[in-house]
Each structure stands twice: as C-alpha cells, then as structure tokens.
Amino acid sequence: MPEVTCPPHGRARRFRAASLSLALAAAMVFAGAAAASADDIRSREYWLGQYGITQAWNVSQGEGVKVAVIDSGIDSSHPDLKGAVAGGIDMSGSGAAGGTKGVGAEPEHGTLVATMLAGRGHPSPSATGGATGAAGASGQVGAGPDGVIGVAPKAELLSISVWLGSENPAGKNIDDQIPAAVRWAVDHGAKVINMSLGSTSTAWPESWDSAFAYAEAKDVVIVAAAGNRKSGSEQVGAPATIPGVLAVGGLDKDGTASVDSSSQGISIGVSAPAEDLAGGLPGGGYARWSGTSGAAPIVSGVAALIRSKYPQMSAAQVINRIISTAKPKGGGTPNAIYGYGILDAEAALTANVPLVQANPLGSIADWIRVHRRGQVAPPAKGATVSTAPATEPTLSDRPVPKALDAAKLTSAAPQAIVLGFSGLLVLILAGGATHLFLARRKH
Fold first, then answer.
1. Could you give the CA distance from residue 261 to residue 229 in angstroms, rounded to a whole number?
2. What is the dihedral of CA 355, 359, 360, 361, to 10 degrees?
3. Which residues have CB under 8 Å from 193's CB, separation 6+?
C-alpha cells in the first residue's frame, strides 16, 4: 500500500479497469497521517543516483523541451510544479479546459506522473532568501529544496486529461480521446509524449492508427508503461505494443524485474524503477506508490534530457540511445522481461552511440501498410503531402496482342495459308514416292 500525505479525504479505494487503465500497481489510500513529508521526499528518490540521473544533470536538465503527459490531468498548483506546466487541454469533456483538473477513476494519477517527470521541488520553509527552488542560481539541480525533483526538472509539461477507468459523464469514448490527445500534443510542440496507461489487450483500436503515425511522421518520441501484473496485465498491452513506441518495464529497488509492478512481452524496450516510488498529489500532498506508471516518466524524463542536449537528433536516434546504452539483463538481448536492459541515464547522455536511420523498435506506418489489409491510411492532419510528378518509367510495356475479328477468319488470307500448306504436303508425298522407286531399281 502506498503511503500518502495530503488533505484528508477519509476514503480508500482500489483502482481496476477492464479495458484501458492507468498503469498503477497499488491502491491509493488517503489518510491525514504524515507518512511522507516534503522534506524527506528527496531521500526517497533512490532512482536519481542509482540510475545515473544526477550525473546526467551535468549535461542536461531538459531545457527547451516540451513533454506531453496524457493522463488524468495535472494539478499545476502543486508547489513542486510551479512554472512547469506550459499548457494543456481536456479531451474528456469532463475536466478543466487546461487539463489541470483530475478526472477519471484516479484523478491524482497525472500529478504523480508529472512530478516524477519534471518536478522542480520547492524552497524549504527554513530557507533564506538565497533559495531558488529546484535549480539554484548556478543553474544546477541542488540537494537543498524540499519536495520532488523530477528526472527533467527544467522541461516543460503539457497536461492532456483523458477519462479512464470508469464511465465518463461526458460520454466521450477512450477510442476517440487518445488519438485526439496524441494529435494535440504533436501540434502544440511536444517532443516527447508520456503515456502511463495501458490495456490488458495487445491490440489497439484502428482509430488510433493515424494519430500515432502522425506523431511518428512529426518525429515525436512516445513512451508508454508496460502495465502491471497486480492490476491484471500479465503481458504488455497497448499502447506499449504499438511499433515505434518505447515500452517501459518495471524494476524493484534491487534492479530486478518487479513481480507486481511490471509485465512481460517482446515489445518492452527498457526497464526502470517501478516500486517504492515518491510523487506529488493534487493539493500539495505526496505519496509512496508503485507501478510502471512511475517507470514511464523516468524514461520520458531521460528522453527529454537527450532532446535538450541534442536538439537535432531524431526520435529514432533518441530511442536508440536509451536502449543501446541500457545495461543488459536476463536471457538474451532483448528479452521479454527486461527488453534491452536497465536504464542508464548518464550513458544515454554521454556514450558514443552510432546514429541510426530507423527506429529500432519499428514503425507504425509500416505496420499499418502490412496489417490493415492493404488499406492506405489517409494523410495525417496537418501533414505535408507531396505534389511532385511521378517519375517516368524507364521501360515501356508492349501493346497486348488483339484477337482477330470473326469476320476476318473467312477472308482470302486464311484460305491462301490453307492452300499453301496443302501444296507443300503434295510435294513431300511425291518426293517420298520417287525415293522408293529409285531404291527398288538398285535391287
């Protein structure tokens, strides 16, 4: 059970959804007791040091990169997110216009994810006037501020709220909300999209195809949670199964695949911490929680660090850096438990990695051409359509022979052919008779 500090709600609840759900492995229990306070949160963030994130901050902190969080909505008033949310929208029809109101069965989920991804902490109450929050005057992330420091503390967030896990009062279907959210994120400058949600099915609705292809065409990195056994996902589900999406598996504190807070499948790209996590809650509270919902924003944060340091690097190359620098674990690389291995943020930022031309995790556009029965997907909204003339063929086909009309079959030409053949037959027979006559005279 996660420990939570927030304004008392006097309720407890277990989240479970049959179709698409937030990738949260543990129940959220709300209580008034101070189980996790702002001044001890930093010590709980073990992944910052163990996975090379603090070392990566010497190279990049995510400046200039927008990361879209498609989730239940983000409380932008949380003290650790001050100045971090640059915009947003509600796709559910039931939330706030800017995506800042929690919606669905787990309204707090989006704030948990956002703080882990781009939290900036906040000054300690005892701090003097020199305190400046997550990044001090030197521009480097310090150890002084209270609260959650995210993996990319200088990245900007776009909050896109969608309704998951229960019936949406507005009646909007998730099959429509997700593609609309992906398109909006791309059109509003997201270079990385975090999707800490998942399905118990490996398949996804056809209505999602063009939106994910649009993101691919616009060079956006999409990171998705692999799902959790504890919430019913034995195997990786969509959208983490979509070709080209970086699916994130979950680890326990010892760096071993989590029993409850992960799943398995050939689409897993990399693994990151998913147990005993710390994040912020709406209203300024904090929680201990688990799930690949928390592993995904850690990886999305690293993607933002890379895109900030190497702005000309393609999405395919960003993903390749993350998976090729991961520390291999398990039987073979990749494998269905760890993917290419365990996240190493410092290596992803600093290692000498050969450039690639194609996403090593595949292409949704190619998948559509092969698997949607040859259907040609319509041009993505806003995509550039080439009007260049087609190249002339270098070889030309000969005309197909035409059959003769029936009337021509009675003309003189066929008759002459028949008569000519008859005359030739007579000459052959005559020659044979002469040969026999001469042979008899010799005897």
1. 6
2. 160
3. 67, 68, 70, 182, 185, 186, 215, 220, 221, 222, 223, 300
Q: What is the DSSP letter of 230?
A: G
Cα separation, 211 vs 217, in Å, equals: 10
CATH homologous superfamily for the domain 4-371: Peptidase S8/S53 domain (3.40.50.200)
Q: Is 100 within 8 Å of 88 (Cβ atoms)?
A: yes
Contact 125, 286 (CB under 8 A): no
Euclidean distance between CA atoms 88 and 158, whole angstroms: 5
Contact 151, 346 (CB under 8 A): no
Residue with tokens 């340091």, as numbered in its chain: 309
To which residue do tokens 């990169």 refer? 65
Side-chain half-sphere CA neighbours of 185 within 13 A = 37
Supply 430's token pair.
Answer: 């005559």
Q: For residue 56, give both structure tokens.
A: 């990566």
Q: Report pLDDT for 319.
A: 98
Could you give the CA distance from residue 260 to residue 273 in angstroms, rounded to a whole number?
12
Predicted confidence at residue 22, as pLDDT, reads 63
CA dihedral 132, 190, 228, 363 (to 10 degrees): -150
Q: What are the tokens at 435?
A: 């040969």
pTM of the model: 0.78
- 180 exposure class (CB count in 10 Å sphere: 0-12, 13-18, 19+): middle
Q: How many residues does the chain have?
A: 443
Q: What local confidence, expressed as pLDDT, does residue 320 receive? A: 98
- Taking the C-alpha atoms of residue 408 and residue 427, their distance in angstroms, rounded to an integer, is 29
Active site residues: 71, 109, 293
Q: Count other C-beta atoms under 10 Å from residue 214's C-beta.
A: 23
Distance CA 337, CA 332 (A): 10
Q: Give the chain's residues under pLDDT 50.
A: 1-19, 25-35, 128-139, 142-144, 376-424, 426-430, 432-443
Pairing of strands 85-90, 192-195: unpaired
Tokens of 272: 């990151």
Q: What is the pLDDT of residue 183?
A: 98
How far apart are the C-alpha atoms of 324 and 299, rounded to whole Å? 14
Map out the domains of the chain as residue ranges.
4-371
Cβ atoms of residues 303 and 318 within 8 Å:
yes
